[in-house]
Design goal:
By secondary structure, this protein is mainly β. It folds into two domains: about 15-140, Thrombin, subunit H; about 150-290, 3-layer Sandwich (tm1086 (SG structure) fold), CATH 2.102.30.10. About 10% of the residues lie in helices and about 30% in strands. It is built from five helices and 18 strands. The protein has helices at about 80-85, 120-125, 160-165, 210-215, 285; strands spanning about 15-20, 30, 35, 45, 65-70, 90-95, 105-110, 115-120, 135-140, 150-155, 165-170, 175-180, 180, 200, 225-230, 235-250, 260-270, 275. A six-stranded antiparallel beta barrel has the order 1-5-8-7-6-9. β2 and β3 (about 35) form a beta hairpin. The radius of gyration is 18 Å and the shape is globular.
Length: about 290
């Protein structure tokens, strides 16, 4: 059965950002096992890390694929609006420089650094500079299912939602394709935050037995992922029987309490969202972007 949404009632709003500078957090950092490292982290234009790539194995931490962007506005009170209005799957357009007019796609937002990650083809990345600007057609906040008020939806373009492959069963439950299912106790940094529409939270991958049991080593940028017993309706908290669905927006990290970042897309506290494992449950695979670009 098809799911009906209120997409025709949503407001589409332009927001504008620019390249976020690449950042070094400290001369050296200490991982959860006591390892010392000095690695690249957030920000900048990243040429070789893309949607569809593994979030593991990089000599970097909290790496953001593609172009990391941030608010370009003198009014700091508007800072949250850039992330809030920009949803996964939204159109991004370059509005300056040699790549002016090129079209890309929003992946998601990263809390703390307040970055928004954009995917562009290689030919566009080669033309971009750190002075370039981007216009996002912000569209998706306020989205809901007409017949399922108990399912909360955030941060996703309604057109991407329609292409995702959700299926409403005869018993009223909704099957949701995901690549990985994460246990509640594997969630870390970001728990307790109220920033459902402007941030993310991290999947902990420091325990080898948990990684193996739940196939967390399969996580890729852009993957749709389910988190069991987590309620993300009004904040991130444990609630038995709840379920949250999100998208992976940054890489793994050796820092204690940190790991691959997940941006919330859906949450429900009753037994209604049913995660169904699928290798194709990835933004890139659905939209033909990142490593899946033709």
């Amino acid at each position: 059965m098809s799911l009906t949404t209120n997409k025709n009632q949503l407001v589409m709003t332009a927001v504008q950002g620019s390249v976020a500078p690449a950042h070094q957090w400290a001369p050296f950092e200490v991982g959860s096992a006591g390892e010392i490292f000095s690695w690249p982290s957030t920000g900048g234009i990243t040429y070789n890390v893309k949607i569809g790539d593994s979030v593991f194995g990089w000599a970097g931490e909290h790496i953001e694929s593609g172009v990391s962007t941030t608010l370009d506005h003198k009014n700091s009170k508007c800072a949250a609006g850039y992330q809030f209005l920009s949803c996964c799957g939204n159109q991004a357009r370059v509005i300056s420089g040699e790549a002016k007019g090129a079209i890309g796609t929003v992946l998601g937002h990263h809390g703390g650094v307040e970055h928004l990650m954009l995917d562009f083809p290689d030919a566009t990345l080669e033309k971009l500079t750190c002075d370039d600007k981007f216009l996002i057609k912000g569209y998706g906040q306020g989205l809901k299912f007409i017949d399922h008020d108990d399912v909360f939806i955030y941060n996703i373009d309604p057109n991407l939602l329609e292409k995702w492959g959700l299926n409403e069963r005869d018993d009223g439950k909704i099957e949701v394709p995901v690549h990985v299912i994460v246990p509640c106790y594997a969630m870390g940094s970001g728990i307790g935050a109220l920033s459902m529409t402007t941030g993310d939270y991290d999947i902990l991958c420091h325990d080898a037995s948990v990684v193996k049991e739940f196939s967390l080593d399969k996580l890729r940028f852009g993957d749709f992922v389910a988190v069991l017993d987590h309620d993300n309706r009004y904040g991130r908290t444990y609630r038995k029987g709840a379920i949250t669905i999100g998208v992976i927006i940054h890489s793994d990290s050796p820092l204690g309490g940190h790991g691959p970042g997940l941006m919330t897309l859906m949450s429900c506290t009753i037994d209604k969202l049913v995660p169904v494992l699928s290798e194709k449950a990835n933004v890139g695979a659905i939209l033909g972007i990142g490593r899946y670009a033709v």
